[in-house]
Amino acid sequence: MNPTLSFLRWPALLAALAVVYLGASPLARANDLDEIRQIRTEMQQLAQRLNALEQKVAQGQPGAAAAGSAAAPISASAPVEATPATASAPKITIDNTGFTFASADSANFIKLHGLVQLDSRWYTDDHGIPNNDTFVLRRARLIFEGGFDKIYSFLIVPEFGGGGTGVSNAPVIYDASLNIAFDPAFQLKFGKFKSPIGLEMLQNDAVLLFPERSLATNLVPSRDVGVVAGGGWSKGAVTYSAGVVNGSADAAYANNVATDNGKDFVGRIFFRPFLADADSLLKGLGFGLGGSAGDHNKSSSLTSGYKTDSQQTFFTYRSTVTPYGTTWRVSPQANYYVGPLSLQTEYTASAVTALVGTSKIDVRNSAWQVGVGYFLTGEKASYDGIVPLSPFRPGSGGWGAWEIAARVDRLKIDSDAFPLLSDPAASASGATAYGLGLNWYLSKTIRFDLDYVLTNFDRASGTTSTTNTLIGADERAILTRVQVGF
Questions:
Q1: Measured between alpha carbons, how far is 322 from 340 in angstroms, rounded to an integer?
Q2: Within 10 Å of residue 94's Cβ, how many Cβ atoms?
Q3: Mean pLDDT for the chain?
Q4: DSSP 234
């Protein structure tokens, strides 16, 4: 007989004898006889279970040893087996990249990110510029990311801020997409997402060199709706995107439905030929080309306007102007990261055939930007952001990461846009901006920015007066940002 089960049998038999004794005593007979019978029955059932358990142990049936070990004494000389971890136990991770809930094999996960940016805009020359000296909740986002079966992933980005973005302050959905990764070289993305054209536009909002993107980014759409294929080779040395989308105007956040039958073909290819060479000074060099082309009719619209760094509009088309014909964009681009130094540049041209009354006019606007950053505290610059070598902690000697930044950018409006397509008294024919900045990264999640931007405006030929006080003089703006991003 198994000694463990024998050990369990004795308490049961002693309890049974005690019940029999109590049942035979005069005092017990004076008590509730039904309760005594119930106890006898339970003791009999316990004896039967012990007998059955002994038979299972003798026959070596699975599960019997585990059942017996729950009450068995542990001998000092007997080995104790470690209990294996539950294979299906989920994993929960909370760190400075967000909150992650994943299956044990990480094949399925949901991750929550957040981004909050509080800006201020101050003007050193107050000459009637609208919206002067203000605090702005620039962005307030909860970002939902997830994946299933290791090949399906999704991204949902609602915006609750909307300050200066050209959209309503009511909550909107910026991104809502599904990605299927058939292979590293071939993936499909469906939904609403950033158009794969501009280098700076594709960069994460939380890691930009300046609080606002350059004038060059005015000429590419922000989001669009459709489907694109993409992927890469040689571990990211070559990446590409190509697809079909509804087609959005310059600087526009696409509607969820198309306003005409036209569609845009979009594409981008980017090369980092020295990426695998860890010792090369050119390891951080990248260059590529993005663009779009399509046909649209007069039921769609042109851009709602081009904006300065302080998000004030310096150019708009007349309300009666619509696109009617071929539209295209092209954007050669490059960046370079080596040690604490970063360099980014791109050129963008945006062309559209515009209709006003019965007149069709071809317009080609162009822009460029060059931005440079340098980490005074020695961090390694990256397109995807950095982690301070010594995060800011009062009393411990850590002061975070400090970066200085400079940028020059220019946007030129086609002279053929005036005066039929745009009012020369209300819109500038061009703008050139010069920016200096200081960025303080207290940690990976917390960042402070302080920037000064001077913007010069060009006037259309022959313009003698203005109805837009913004373009009547240079714009001198001091911009600040406090950011939480994880």
A1: 46
A2: 11
A3: 84
A4: G
